[in-house]
Write a structure and sequence with these properties.
By secondary structure, this protein is an alpha/beta fold. The chain has 5 helices and 10 strands. The chain has a domain of 101 residues: Dihydrofolate Reductase, subunit A (3-Layer(aba) Sandwich), CATH 3.40.430.10. It is 21% helix and 31% strand. GO terms for molecular function: 5-amino-6-(5-phosphoribosylamino)uracil reductase activity.
Amino acid sequence: MRKLVYYVASTIDGFIAAPDGSYEFLDPHPDVAKHLATHWPQTFPTVAHEQLGIDRPQGRFDTVLMGHGTYQPALDLGVTSPYAHLRQYVFARSLPPSDDPAVEIVSGDPVAFVRDLKARPGGDIWLCGGGHLAGQLFSEVDELVVKLNPIVVGSGIPLVEQTFDPQHLTLLDATPIGGGVIIVRYTR
């Protein structure tokens, strides 16, 4: 069965974006970008592949899930398919159906949709963001991969937006990758 992997950058205090949704303060150090391009190439937008030297983004994912807030910056730039190398699902109730065949807008229940998606054949599924969607889907997350950045911001969009519900995870590994960033991997 396919795994749902929540792979996301976060601050030490658990925020993935500023209150307004911006995340420029999490721009990776050059060493970090190089490491990520080598080990997680599928998680870069298609437009960045040439600049980062990513020829064919190989890896574990064939699908990406994102919320409306995560997808909107691409739309603002006129990009309807930010991860053209992956099958893309955008969870949004206020967006019309996509004209781009590589992007499907999902307005229904995210949990039911992901359970169905996980039962289909294919590679693992990358939950890209944001915090609200992660909160809705956290019970379905099989692996949590956090690019933990050495910054404290105080407030913003949380890693997981949900009601108080302690869930214990098991550490798989923690890898320092430069610039003070550590990739921390957990499983259920």
